[in-house]
Amino acid sequence: MEEDWWSKFYVSMEDKDPKFPWGTNEDRLNIYGCELEAVPEFEGLQDFCQTFPLSKPGRAPEPVGSFKGLFRIYPVPQEGGAAPAPRCFQRLPPRQPQPCLLRVYVVRAFDLSPRDVTGLSDRYVRVALGKKTLGQRDQYVPNTLEPVFGSAGPACWRDQLCPSRALELLAGTRGLPGPRFSRGGTALSLSGQRFELRHLAGPPPAATRRAPRERLALHVLNLCELFPEHLETRGLQSRAQPGLEQGKVQMWVDIFPTSLGPPRPPVNIDPHKAKGVTRPCPLLRYELRCVVWNVGDMDPGDINLLGQRMSDIYVSGWLDGLSEQQQHTDIHYRSLNGRGAFNWRFVFPFEFLAAEKLCAIRRKEHVWSLDEMLLKVLPKLILQVWDNDKFKVDDLLGILELELTQLPHPACSARLCRATLQDLPWFSWAWLSLPRFFWAQLSRAWLSLARFSWLWLPLAWLSRCWCRALARQRSPLNLFRRRRARGWWPCTVHKDGGQWLLGKLELSLELLSAQEAEERPVGKGREEPKKHPTLPEPRHPKSSFLWLTSPLSLVRHGVRWHYLLWLGLGLAALLLLLLLHSFFPGTLKVKVADPRQLLPAKEQPGTKPPLTER
Length: 614
Description:
Layout: H1 5-13, E1 30-31, E2 50-56, E3 62-69, E4 100-110, E5 127-129, E6 132-134, H2 163-173, E7 180-181, E8 187-190, E9 193-196, H3 212-222, E10 230-236, E11 247-257, E12 283-296, E13 302-303, E14 309-319, E15 322-328, E16 332-335, E17 340-353, E18 358-363, E19 373-377, E20 380-387, E21 395-403, H4 429-432, H5 436-449, H6 453-473, H7 479-482, E22 484-495, E23 498-513, H8 514-519, H9 551-558, H10 561-583
Parallel strand pairs: 1-10
Antiparallel strand pairs: 2-3, 4-11, 5-6, 7-8, 8-9, 10-11, 12-17, 12-23, 13-14, 14-15, 14-16, 14-20, 17-18, 18-19, 20-21, 22-23
Helix pairs in contact: 2-3
């Protein structure tokens, strides 16, 4: 399949990944974020000559122009028969002006200032050189501040000379002997160095895939510090506001002297695609499947008539910018502990720009709008946990935002799901991910060290710091490469300068291309087909029901019968005492005896002992 120029452009903007199919260095463009003359290695686009300012002599030198030239001092050989040093000026360019063919490729623009009332603009390109102007007003990109003027075109060798011929001319310009190729073109010798084709890594580029000789010559040209295949970024200026940048444009320019012969066909980056050629489309279609399994540790938002804290929990979700695709789970009624089980699937189709890592949304701003506008937003999944209320507005219990390209690592259990990394326990994922053999060895080591408390405590502190440091070093997941993720994510809120935990969500995320989604269809919610993965009915406790439809169940599960039992026993005892008092009033009377009457007569105070006869 013929390589597409836009594929090279997207690969150049992507992170270098060894698993990426287009990830060779020869298939990449050098994208500069400034003008070519501002790149340090190009030294202001100076050629073999230098520019010196000219000024009038006097007390106050006045600049009158510039002198372009080059001064070189060559050593004179000591011996008479010695060869002189190689001269720098071997082939000087002609003095007369040379006719050239100029090709300007305008790829895209961004950071443009708006011109319409809506905050957007209909942009088109117009290029002028001398008396010639190109560009039509009707070829505009509507309703955008980041127009893309090219779409797809085959990548090909566009120079007038083949790589081997260009290498011969470059060697002659620098005073070197021409390159010498082997018979099969698999080896090359130049200036005392030998290059072999088998030492080149990666598949050959599309421009030289059928010619080993040309591929090897192109590799040597890339080592000669010439201008590589590039894309420069230039600022846009306005005559009405000089000095104030109006945006940026990415482009490149090709200059072909007619003295070297006719140039090759231009690179086709026209929006129209060639018929019969299948090329990768820059706008990719995906389908995100999110399964909400469980909700945990949510703060109950209501208090029922019996004084119980409870919530009727449900989860809603959508992709950022696609609020019309918002979906809801069913309701987990009467959650008394902040937990809920759903086993509910969300399905979100969307379009994605792989180069910019943004979602593309096409919509008309108004009904009467003629053209659609293109919005670019981050691929972000938004999930909200709500408390369902019948007679007032629902209460928001927690929110979770997951960026698909920067997805935080989920926790394997709800117990390890924390708001921040500082809240992780010392036995976090770094320990739990070890095999059983190492677990046994670590357990024996800890038991042996338990006798030495002065050594055990510092080691425990160091292990906790080590686990947290490893957790911080874990780079976020890219779901477009990982494709699947499952675990617990925390619902947090930023308050008082920190992250506060509001609850936890157990999710299963899966990202599929449009073709894969057609091959593995699934239903929304718990509708058929329930595969990939299979969604059983959630296990709700018996106390989870809608009280309006089951009043008897409310009496059975809503009343705290163990409290009523003790209350009934207390009332029964009190009633029994009252009945005894009403029917047998004497039984409840208590006679209080005088303690003095209980003492013997001789021990009573104030009495004299009896007289005895002698």
